[in-house]
Amino acid sequence: MKPSSPPDSIELASFLDYLKGFKRFVNQIIATLFKIIGRHFLWILLPLVLTLGYGYFKYTGQDPVYHLEMQLTYNELYKRTYGEMIVQLNQQLQNKNYSYVAKELQMKGEDVMRIAKIEALNFAKSPLEEDVSKEKLPFYILADVKDTRISSDLQNGLLYYLKNNPLNQERRRVNLVNLKDRLNFLEGQLAWMDSIKVNYNQQLRLGKISETTGNEMAIDRLFSLSDTFYKEWLGARSGLESYEAVELIMGFSPGPKPQAQSFLHFMSKYFILGLLAGLALTLWLAIPTKESE
Fold it and tell me: Which of 42, 70, 188, 195 is packed most tightly, with the most Cβ within 10 A?
């Protein structure tokens, strides 16, 4: 009487038999596919050639794209807010919602159609919409355009778009009110200090007081504080006259060179599309019909 095999050996043998059967099944499928491809090779080649030809036609017929770059600084809101505004604008542009973009940028519709892409980067050239830092560093706006003649209008339009969002308008209104209040306070303080300085000089000239009365330190401090307030008043008045939410540091450079898209990168999607179409057509033709059965 033969000794019975342990259960583990039986399970291992069953598993090996399953693997052998699965391997035969895979080999049969691969052999069948190669057989179908060899029989209908031209039906694979035809869609591939057609799509590659169409891709080459599109590549040679596309307009040249020019890369523009401008540098900005800001006085209100956060860098991320401006980055999100540019992302939203570019999404509308990619969706071909040219009327919306034209309205936001105060540009003509036909000029907006010549814009290929707009994006915003921080000072480290990372996406601005992802920047949550509080450092007030300049940022960049990059644009790809098909006609450099729209550069000036696009630059002005982007500045208008960033400055005139509802958040900036309200923040600007509050900041201007605060600036005016500060100016009024400084003017009052300066007028009061000037009256003290005039009275002091008059008493010195009339000999009613001497320069060694013990008040020299107080008078010197008054004159120093008056100079400090006057400089602050000048800065506040300048800010009131030229206050902007966003300011231009460096505008779009004139006459940039066109950015050529990689031929291999451009054609790769047409190659994949043609190959998939050819394989799908080949498999369709390989399905037997009732007549052939």
Answer: 70
Coil, helix or strand at residue 127? strand
Query: Cα separation of 286 and 12, whole Å?
Result: 38
pTM above 0.70, yes or no: no
Conformational region of residue 251, where left means phi above 0, alpha means psi within -120 to 50, and beta covers everything else: beta
CB 197 within 8 A of CB 222: yes
What the block records as the tokens of 108 is 């003509």
Tell me the domain boundaries of the chain: 7-60+262-286, 65-168+250-258, 179-246
Span 32-44, average pLDDT: 72
At 49, list the tokens: 């050639």
For 255: left if phi > 0, alpha if psi spans -120 to 50, otherwise beta; the answer is left
Distance from chain centroid for Cα 208: 70
Q: CA angle, corner 192, sides to 191 and 194, nearest 5?
A: 65
Asked if pLDDT for residue 192 goes beyond 50, the answer is yes
Q: Is the Cα torsion angle 172, 173, 174, 176 positive or negative in sign?
A: positive
3-state SS assignment for residue 100? helix
Two tokens, residue 270: 């047409």
> Is residue 277 classed exposed, middle or buried when 0-12, 13-18 and 19+ CB atoms within 10 A define those classes?
middle
